[in-house]
Structure of Chromosomal replication initiator protein DnaA:
Amino acid sequence: MASSAATSSVKVANPLARALPSAHATGGDLAIWEQVRAALRAESGERNFETWLAPLAFLGCDEGEVHVAAPSAFLADWVANHFAERLRHHWAQRRAGVRQVTVSVRSDPAHAAPSGTPVAAPRPLAAVPAPAMAVPGLSLPIESRYTFQSFVVGKSNELAYNAAQAVAEPGAPGFNPLFLHGTTGLGKTHLMHAIGNAYLARQPDARVVYMSAEKFMVEFLAALRAKEAISFKQKLRSVDLLMIDDVQFIAGKESTQEEFFHTMNEIISAGKRLVITADRSPQNLEGIEQRILSRMAWGLVADINPADYELRLNILHAKVEAMPQQVAVPDDVIEFLARKITANVRELEGALNRVVAYAALVNAPVTQEFARERLADLLRAHERKLTIDDIQRKVAEHYKLKMADLLSARRAREVARPRQVAMYLAKKLTPRSLPEIGRRFGGRDHTTVMHAVKRIEELRAVDRELDGDVMMLTRLLDG
Ligand SMILES: Nc1ncnc2c1ncn2[C@@H]1O[C@H](COP(=O)(O)OP(=O)(O)OP(=O)(O)O)[C@@H](O)[C@H]1O
């Protein structure tokens, strides 16, 4: 992510540079900083403010440049990309001449190496130990195929992905724990394994434990029975990185929750890393003690939303590329799957595998027809007959137009652009042909529809608002 999205008035200082600018904070500037904070709190909401903005430290302002510092490279990056323009705006309103905001990474004396500490020399290759593993016995195996590289990023999982990367990086991430939540099959477990793999690749000797909340409970109760609870506690609390999957499982299980709470506290206060996943947000987890919920919400809570059409396409492309056998899967089949299998990524992946495996078995080319036949059961379950009429209505409603306008010959931009969006969606989301779509839009020619589709494709690449409209409409219409 980083600096690419930062506006020209904002820069992210090199996250690795620990030294801070020599600006100084005067009393007047500190008062402005408090006002800016209040304005940001009001406009971004309490949650966003606490997560992203509250940890910022104000360093000072010199020659039109405001310097703030975040506790980690991850936070610095995120603030620069998502809040820096607002920061600049509020400063500029209150202090003449402010043109730029610089976000740097705060050097934290508590974590800095004491001066004089020798930096470890790189180890020669031959001395590198065999690939490290999670703590045997205690941890479930960490799957090597689930890596950051094999995780495809889109708007719906971007925050979770970036935060997960920050946990695996060497410096303190600036938040603890990381709480990932989302419904089934959206990549929570994948990200946890990716954290484990990346962390162990950097520090092969680290003690990493990945376990389901169910395993946590089973192991804890077994240790209690065997009168080995102390050793269980010690083993678990001495890890460097603890990852607990599906924490909703301990709902209603009181003694397990008690133990879980103390484990969380120990890990966090020892500065070790904790990652937790659940199928819903902390506020929505029922049957879990309030003190655990607030401890969880104290770190960074990142949701993973269902993948949109674009992300589904990208995931499918990535999965096809990663397949061991080189099977040609034409683009129209990929688009077909991305359009039809919308529930979650696990199902999408399963559908692709099913089609490809069967094609290889019977030595048939992968076509849309073939895919439709192989997935008939799955598709029937999802089938919702989406009509051009549905699309027109939704688009008209979204742009606050009358249906008659959408179908009219009016060329004014405020009508013509939504009409092109509707034609584009009709082509992408229904099996109707271009001439058929033209007919349904007031008897237009198929070349008009073709032009509309091309135009919207071009615009989506450069116009974020339009792209957002199309994605939202696609989700509303196509599930
Ligand atoms: N963004 C993504 N890129 C690549 N693969 C993904 C992505 N999201 C999910 N997957 C794949 O989808 C499958 C299901 O993901 P995963 O098991 O991580 O889901 P989950 O959210 O943990 O679900 P559950 O709550 O049911 O355990 C995995 O094979 C995973 O690799």
Notes: Confidence is low (pLDDT under 50) at residues 1-22, 109-132. Residues 298 and 347 are 33 Å apart (CA to CA).
